[in-house]
Write a structure and sequence with these properties.
It holds the Pfam family cNMP_binding. This protein has 195 residues and is an alpha+beta fold. It has 8 helices and 8 strands. It is elongated.
């Protein structure tokens, strides 16, 4: 499998020499998953950080009525994991599955810990990812409290431009926290307002 996308992501933050690159890639596993295939179920321990080469993953929580609350989408070039579970190695609270057939690169928690010791600059790279994830999570939490459904939809479009035309309205609605029917009416009203 081609590792260029992953290496390009890393190169935005740290520089690896050839030996470090080979060593890092020795810890990477490849995985192909089919649409709707689960990578993690609620209550399981997340043992891998996942990088999406192609396709798209999503993480979500189900409430007692079976309603989905999508926390994140991970299209091509994004990392995905249930951070609480990955860090603590305790059972997680999220489901992670594939929205489309996807190709992934995985690094286990065990190998990640080895990598931090063997190539310390990876501490910096993954710290940057963790900080960005925290900022994104907090921003999204505030958006859900402060913004209207239309504004949350606009933020979704800015955050995931490659997914706007790929996802069903049901998926988008679950991400912005409305029913598919409400989203449909809102988008239909927007279309009617266009000249």
């Amino acid at each position: 499998m081609n590792h260029d996308l992953l290496l390009a992501s890393i190169a935005k933050h740290i520089q690896l020499d050839e030996e470090e690159t080979v060593h890092f890639l020795s810890y990477i596993q490849t995985k192909k998953v089919r649409k709707k295939q689960y990578l993690l179920l609620e209550g399981e321990v997340n043992r891998f950080a996942m990088f999406v080469i192609s396709g798209c993953l999503r993480s979500y929580h189900l409430d007692e009525n079976g309603f989905q609350y999508i926390q994140q989408f991970a299209p091509e070039g994004w990392w995905m994991g249930e951070m609480y579970s990955l860090i603590t190695q305790e059972p997680g609270h999220l489901y992670i599955d594939a929205l489309f057939d996807s190709e992934l690169l995985l690094i286990s928690k065990t190998n990640l810990e080895k990598l931090y010791k063997e190539i310390p600059k990876f501490n910096y790279y993954f710290r940057i990812l963790a900080e960005k994830s925290l900022v994104s999570y907090q921003t999204r939490a505030m958006e859900n409290l402060r913004l209207t459904a239309r504004e949350r939809y606009e933020k979704f479009c800015l955050r995931y431009p490659s997914l706007v035309d790929c996802l069903s309205q049901k998926q988008v609605a679950a991400y912005i926290g409305v029913t598919p029917e409400f989203l449909s009416k809102m988008l239909h009203a927007d279309q009617e307002l266009k000249p």
